[in-house]
Write a structure and sequence with these properties.
The protein is α+β, with helices and mostly antiparallel strands and about 180 residues long. The protein contains two helices and twelve strands. The model has no long low-confidence stretch (mean pLDDT about 90). The structure holds dinuclear copper ion (CUA).
Length: about 180
């Protein structure tokens, strides 16, 4: 038997399965079940991949909802680009926009309070990565991702784009305050 030459018995699938081959197939099958179970286990106990809901939306609808929250709860602006710093009431829905190449706006949240964070993109796919928490969510245009977040530690968090989105990808950073 050779792995290089064509098989002597050309109708190899009509041959009985070898015991050793059967053992390997069985090992691979059991391991695939373990890996499948791990996805569920990791989701519950991994503390990393948050449960989220996704809805269809449009860029215009999402931008309007974000703008409404910004108009109502902006407390100051920051950086040269005059990015609004928004302090919404605890428990409210907050909207974060990803676009070439910025996250908008900056939110200031209260420690221990729960918020519903909505994410969407205005142009291409971006990656919402919250540092140093290691929370990662893909952000797509025309889809609204909703995640419940309860910040447990105060401080300044960085939002980094972790899906390559063009020449300015490495500059696509934002921030979030927890007080
Ligand atoms: Cu946005 Cu990379």
């Amino acid at each position: 038997m050779s792995a290089i030459l064509p098989p002597a018995e050309r109708l190899w699938w009509k041959q009985p399965i070898d015991k050793l081959e059967f053992i390997w197939v069985a090992i691979a099958f059991v391991w695939s079940l373990v890996m499948f179970g791990m996805m569920i286990w990791w989701h519950i106990y991994g503390n990393q991949n948050l449960s989220n809901e996704t809805y269809k939306t449009t860029k215009e609808m999402f931008a309007a909802k974000a703008q409404a929250v910004v108009d109502q709860y902006t407390v100051r602006t920051e950086t040269d680009q005059q990015v609004p710093v928004v302090k919404p009431p605890a428990g409210s829905d907050i909207y974060l926009i990803g676009r070439l190449w910025a996250w908008w706006p900056i939110y200031e949240l209260e420690q221990g309070k729960t918020y519903k964070l909505h994410l969407s993109a205005m142009d291409y796919m971006h990656g919402f990565s919250l540092q140093p928490q290691n929370i990662n969510i893909q952000v797509h245009p025309n889809y609204e991702h909703v995640v419940k977040i309860t910040p447990t530690q105060s401080g300044t968090y960085s939002i980094v784009c972790n899906e390559y989105c063009g020449i300015g990808h490495h500059t696509m950073v934002g921030r979030m305050y927890v007080k």
